[in-house]
Amino acid sequence: MSNIVPLISSGTAGPLGVLHLPRLWLKASLGAAGKLHSDYPAIGAGYDQMVLDGLGLDKGAFEAFIADSKPSYIELEAWVLEQKGGSLDQDAVDTLNADITGYIHADETRDEILGAAGREDDGTIKDAVNLNNLDDWAIFHSQELK
């Protein structure tokens, strides 16, 4: 099994309530195993870095934990809590989640994603979470099912 498109949405949260953390775990885990689809960075500069920064986690420590421990998602959340002294700042989580759901792609990016997905831009999809979902699904369909 290789070349896996990460189909967990950035709009998904685990038990800690942090949006995008499950997707970051999946991408980083697949990347560490050499199984991530080449269109995706294991830890990118967008939502991935937003989550690390929003939670106050060191990217290198996160990458090392994923690579060395190969944690389940629940084990990752336990590690996050350990890094944060046992609890998360709920205001910081709320701010991070609002930043994720409120992020809007540039018009050019929106046009590109919708075009690749075969959907006309009628102005109803502007948020990055839903556009990224469409992008993931289009890549999965075009490269994994053909």
Description:
With 146 residues, the chain is an all-alpha fold. It folds into two domains: 1-103, no CATH class; 104-146, no CATH class. 58% of the residues lie in helices and 0% in strands. Helix 2 (47-55) runs antiparallel to helix 5 (90-102). It starts with 20 loop residues before the first helix and ends with a helix. 24% of the residues are buried.
Structural class: mainly alpha
- Low-pLDDT regions: none
| Mean pLDDT score | 95
Q: End-to-end span in angstroms?
A: 16 Å
- Percentage of residues assigned to helices: 55-70%
Overall spatial form: globular
Strand content: under 5%
H/E series, N to C? HHHHHHH
For the sheet with most strands, the description reads: none
Number of helices: 7
Number of strands: 0
How many domains? The number is 2
